[in-house]
Design a protein that fits this description.
The chain has 10 helices and 14 strands. It has 304 residues and is α/β, with parallel strands linked by helices. It folds into 2 domains: 194 residues, Rossmann fold; 80 residues, YebC, transcriptional regulation domain (Alpha-Beta Plaits). The strands form 3 sheets. Strands 6-7-8-3-9-10 form a 6-stranded mixed β-sheet, with helices on both faces. The chain has a 4-stranded antiparallel β-sheet with strand order 2-1-4-5. Strand 9 and strand 10 form a beta hairpin. The radius of gyration is 21 Å and the shape is elongated. 39% of the residues are buried.
Length: 304
């Protein structure tokens, strides 16, 4: 991790009622980067978002936003954060522009041209004087994103960005978020399921399973379609195996199966590493395939 990272998670863990929900996660997002946090329901995505945004306590570790700790410098850290969660919390009797102005006063962002710029950017100028109660789910989602950007945060988190958006609308929103990210050097974190397609839209994506970042891959690697040897190990200790193989072409952790993409020549040494650390190998399966196919298999496993 570098001091210039916009968002840092440093060995973050969360335990509740004796159960470990998040297990020693570290990650960093740079200014101008879009990071996808992917995983099935219950994997720990929402818990991570709640800890980053200060809505849930951190058992150990720390979260830094713009270099400020959410634990020791909470107010300063959260002032650099824009958040869009599932529920928008708008007052239905307000108009869109009234909601934006109210948020501007609350955050100190003011009520200037930035409001009109964002409403225009997200296609809400024509309805900005209407009551929010008359908005479609898509328009409410657009307004929520615009509001989260009003105070020019350094980090924007959108939990389930596809919520309320379909087809062309989703494409437009992604385009605008990407443009803003580059133009304003905004670090963006998008969370979603395995079938969300976020892995192809983000600069990097992390796959979370069992409260751990089980795999992290850049978009260019996923999109390259290189035919490498994909090997799945069914193991006795999947969490330990995932940790040992993390830097060896790791793709995923799914129940007791760890999947990697690596050169054939690497496999004997990787197997030796597992056995040397008392991880039993119960079954090995190999196939040649692109990463998109593996994500597809994971998705089938989640929904099957």
């Amino acid at each position: 991790m570098r001091s210039e990272d916009a968002l840092q998670l440093r060995n973050v863990s969360k335990t509740m009622r004796g159960k470990e929900l998040i297990n020693n996660i570290s990650l960093a997002v740079r200014p101008g980067e879009i990071y996808g946090l992917l995983g099935p329901e219950g994997a720990g995505k929402t818990t991570m978002v709640r800890m980053i945004t200060g809505l849930a306590s951190i058992t150990s570790g720390d979260v830094l936003i713009g270099g400020h700790s959410v634990i020791t410098d909470r107010s300063k850290a959260l002032s650099g954060l824009g958040v869009v969660l599932g529920g928008d919390g708008f007052y239905p009797f307000m108009s869109g522009i009234q909601a934006m102005k109210q948020y501007g006063r609350m955050t100190g962002a003011g009520c200037g041209e930035r409001i009109h710029e964002l409403l225009s950017l997200f296609g809400l100028e024509a309805v900005m004087h209407r009551k929010i109660s008359s908005y479609t789910a898509e328009q409410r989602r657009r307004l929520a994103i615009a509001q989260a950007l009003l105070h020019r945060p350094s980090v924007l988190i959108i939990d389930d960005p596809l919520l309320g958006l379909k087809g062309e609308s989703a494409e437009i929103i992604y385009h605008e978020i990407c443009s803003l990210s580059r133009r304003e050097q905004l670090a963006v974190v998008l969370t979603g399921g395995l079938d969300s397609g976020l892995d192809q839209r983000c600069d990097r994506s992390g796959f979370i399973a069992g409260g751990c970042i089980a795999a992290e891959q850049p978009a260019a690697r996923r999109a390259s379609g290189r035919q490498k040897v994909v090997t799945s190990f069914e193991v006795s200790d999947p969490a330990k195996a995932a940790s040992l193989l993390y830097h060896s072409g790791f793709i995923s952790l799914d129940h007791s199966v760890v999947t990697i993409e690596a050169d054939k020549e690497q496999l004997p040494e990787l197997m030796s590493t597992l056995t040397r650390h008392q991880v039993g190998i119960l079954q090995i399966r190999q196939e040649a395939g692109a990463l998109e196919e593996i994500y597809g298999h994971l998705n089938e496993g989640v929904h099957g």
